[in-house]
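3.2 Worked example (two chains)
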Amino acid sequence: MAEPIRVVLVEDNDVFREALELLLALRGEIEVVATVADGADAARVVAEVRPDVVLMDYRLPGLDGVQATRAVRAACPGTAVVCLTASANPREREALVEAGAVDCLQKDDGLDAIIAAVHNAARPAAA
């Protein structure tokens, strides 16, 4: 069996973060190795645990999703960032991609879409 995809969740909504962590934990191929509630802590935690993928909220305290994505990519260039947000307009989504996000999903896209994005983002890191 292949090693699980190591994921860090960066999400300030406690209920959503905890629910997503529980749902992902049910998947044998994904391991949540850390959760972070503040954008300012994201790069430090990612540098410590070296995940394959970060699921990044857009609206965060401390640093917003764009700033936190930029910091994560600088701290750990081999880690892919997938943005997961309740609302980001096209300009905000473009800024996330320019900061280094490989994908940007809506939180209501569903668990299957989130899992597929994690797998797609992890492929280059695993290669």
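3.2.1 Second chain
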Amino acid sequence: MAREARNRQLIAEVISRPIILTSGDGGRAGVDRKYADGLGNVKNVPDRADFDPFPWHSMAVWILTQMKRWGYIKGEVDYRQIAEKVFMVTDARKHMAELEMKAPARSYAKFKVMGKEFDPAKPDAYLASFAIRKAA
């Protein structure tokens, strides 16, 4: 499974192919948990990032909040409608079952990101909790 540490090198190799990623490190920084911090230091943070192959609708909602936060989306957003049209949970469940993997029963879940709990049922409240955002 993708979340297992023993599979991280293979994942890094697959996602760093030029058609998917073209950055200098080929995406290994996030997967290996070792990265340059932009200040001349190399950090090694074992719990920095994780990989979950399931297309969580709640993650799609979070991505939309960030797009709205930085001005890529304006006005009212029907987060659930967009998330459910873009993240194909039914297909993922089917393919996971073919691989004998257990898919989550629900596609919306709370999670922590950027030090804050994200509740997909309250995306605008989460968005409003940030002092830093694109100037209007």
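3.3 Remarks
The longest strand covers residues 34-36.
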